[in-house]
Amino acid sequence: MPGEVEGGAVPASSRGSWTSFLKSIASFNGDLASLTAPAFILSSQSLVEFSAYWAENQELFIAPTREPDPAKRALLVLRWLMNTLHQQYCSRSEKFGNEKKPLNPFLGELYLGHWEEGDLGRTELVSEQVSHHPPVTAYCITNEKNRIQLQGYNGQKASFSRTIHIKQVGHSLLTLYPPGSNEPETYLITLPALHVENLIYGAPFIELGKYTHLTSSSGYTAKIDYAGKGWVSGKKNSFTAALWKEGEGSEKKPLYSIDGQWSETFTIKEGDGGKKSKELESVSAKKTKLSKLVTAPLEQQDPMESRRAWANVAKSIEKGDMDATSNYKSRIENAQRALRKKEQEENRTWQRVFFSQPDDESGSVRSAEPREKQFSQLAKNLTSGQSFSSQWEGVGPEKTNGIWRYDEAKGKKAQRPFHNDAYEALGEAGSSLPGSEAASRVTTQQSQQPMAQGQAGAGGQ
């Protein structure tokens, strides 16, 4: 098969640029995200859109809010989390034949939308690029009807050693209210490591490495261990997971176990997953029902919203016109550099629309101190390593330009236009709309009305 020969999956017209790209990766010492990839492997989607993958499985996202039993509720959270992996890390390569390099978001880039799913109600998505050096995306996903909110932030650092290794930094906080309760339950979720396989053949795909931790204020903890296909044995995208209650079980003596392939099928069992363990469910990741994210029509989007900002770049990538792609990308990148210089000269900083630091006195983030205290305790549980064979390395705010939280006060005030200097930030003349709508890798549809702002919070979570 062509994909099994070095460069076999690369179009004939691109093999020269692909070979040069591989050589540049091997000799590059900085962050690989800054390298320009060959046309056939470029994506027209910005990384800021990836936040939507957390909640495309709306039924699974909402399900824990309807389960009264705390152990089963924790299992539903773990089940939802496992199902997000397929969309986050392999849906693009399945759809387009290989993983593509996404566009690097610019500071202040926004991706806004909502899901509307029958009796599940409306779920709002806010995603914002809160830092450029280092690059960090923050997000908040809220369903007020079912009293559940996921928020978090993540950055990526790529390096090369036989393959591309991507270290993810940041975390997610899932806050929900159990049925009939006014006491919130919080889950801290850490991020797996990534590495890009099959690169030399020109058909790259993502494999997960190391582990993901999940721990809750209700006392339930889970650990997911990832193991890809080895030289001799194993299956691609394999994993094992264990869920237990602190003080009553452990990683080796769990209440529930899950194993299989996160991209294909996995099995949930009681106990340690041995031969005598009762099988509860077999889950097919590919058959999970996905909901369509509704976004505003392009002409109604703010200039800083991802689809509109990158529309000309996306159109050029889809056409295979790399000269135009480079020109449009350079216009945005040069405008960003000029604006950063201007801000420095005027002794001011870029104002984030939806997110703040927990110690920011100007916003409402400080009013959520109970949540931050809970987060600190959960983080301490993971870094202590008392019940894990491998512990979390910690928050690492120096790697993400701080800790980022959704700011309820900002969210209530936010409305288009979000920035007075948006056109300056993008190098645009002032009012011209980009040529066409960008293609997206996230399942979306357009709404006929602009998205209402200030509804993305979950009131005091």
One letter per element, helices H and strands E, the order comes to: HEHHHEEEEEEEEEEEEEEEEHHHEHEHHE
Q: What would you call the shape? A: globular
CATH topology of one domain: Porin
Distance between the termini: 53 Å
> What percent of the residues sit in helical stretches (DSSP H or I)?
10-25%
Strand content: 25-35%
Rg value? 22 Å
CATH architecture of one domain: Beta Barrel
Mean pLDDT: 84
* Secondary-structure content class: alpha+beta
Largest sheet: 14 strands, antiparallel
Number of helices: 10
Q: How many β-strand runs?
A: 20
Architecture overview:
By secondary structure, the protein is of the alpha+beta class. It is built from ten helices and 20 strands. The chain has helices spanning 15-27, 58-62, 70-89, 91-96, 306-309, 311-319, 322-345, 369-384, 408-413, 422-426, and strands spanning 42-46, 101-103, 110-116, 122-132, 135-143, 148-160, 164-176, 185-189, 193-197, 205-209, 211-216, 220-227, 238-245, 256-261, 265-270, 279-284, 293-295, 355-356, 405-406, 444-446. Strands 3, 4, 5, 6, 7, 8, 9, 10, 11, 12, 13, 14, 15 and 16 form a 14-stranded antiparallel sheet that branches. A two-stranded parallel ribbon has the order 1-2. Strands 17-20 form a two-stranded parallel ribbon. It is globular, with a radius of gyration of 22 Å. 43% of the residues are buried. Mean pLDDT is 84; it is low at 5-10, 435-441 and 448-461.
Identify the notable features of this structure and list them briefly.
alpha+beta; 14-stranded antiparallel sheet; single chain; Porin; about 450 residues
